[in-house]
Amino acid sequence: MWSQLALSLHHGDVYLYLMLGLAWIGVLILIERFVMINFVFRIDFKKFLTNLKKLVQSEDIDRAVSLCKKAGSTSLPHISLRALEAAESDPSTVRGVIEEETIDFLPRVEARLNVLPAIATISLLVGVLGTVDNLWAAFHSIDILDTAEKQASLAGGIATSLTHTSMGLLISIILLAGHQFLKSGAVKLVERIHYGIAVLTNLLAPAETASFIPAMGIPTAPAPAAAEAQAEAPKPAAVAEAQDDSFDDASVEDIKDEEEII
Predict the structure, then answer these.
(1) Domain span at residue 98?
(2) Which residue from 155, 183, 228, 256 lies 20 to 30 Å from 48 (Cα-Cα)?
(3) pTM across the whole model
């Protein structure tokens, strides 16, 4: 396989050079994504959030800002820096700033990862196309060559054609394996960033539980003053009429009993 591959490259096979070009693009994406996910975006989230909590709770905003700048210029430190700046200028905009920065940053984690399966598929298809082309040429040469040369030409054509499929399969395996490895790392990184954003939101913009009770439809107990006013309020007219009706019925029954006695 490898000797036939080297021979085909030496002869300048177009399909092989096209697959090598696609493989080179895929390898560059793998290296770039590996560096960004494991070295640029990733930090010690636990240590960073612990130090940030202490500084914010002690109201030392200047040191908290310097901590974010030292930790990194992207990922969670960048989001925290923008949130701290918003908290200093207008605390009511902290939640909006955190959401905007998060939506802007998270797509960068998985950028260009979806290109790798496409390159792997295209490489495999180019290899299959090269195999079909060489097989076509090999079978076509049978009609032209003599009987003694047909067997050797057909065997050489089949061996050359299988090189393209082998090359396409090899490139696809490498790119798909790298894609799965980087995808798992990106998912873990996004989960840690979501956790850090939740901690940051609760730290700088805590929600007021009381304001959400009417919206959720949770019944609340009436105030003491309101309860007393409700008890002292006049009864409705319908209730009063009902009481009058019951009184009239009772008086009529008493009159009937007296007549029977007499």
Answers:
(1) 2-209
(2) 183
(3) 0.71
Query: Which region among 9-18, 156-165, 181-190, 211-220 has the lowest average model confidence (pLDDT)?
Result: 211-220
Query: Does 134 share its domain with 74?
Result: yes
Are the CB atoms for 63 and 80 separated by under 8 Å?
no
Confidence of residue 14 (pLDDT cuts 50, 70, 90): confident
Question: 87 with 114, same domain?
Answer: yes
Number of domains comprising the chain: 2
pLDDT tens column, 128-158: 998 888 888 777 666 665 666 666 666 666 7
What's the whole-number average pLDDT of the chain?
79
Inside any domain, residue 250: yes
Residues 61 and 95 in one domain: yes
Looking at the domain assignment, is residue 218 inside a domain? no
Same domain, 144 and 251: no
- Greater confidence (125 vs 146) lies with 125
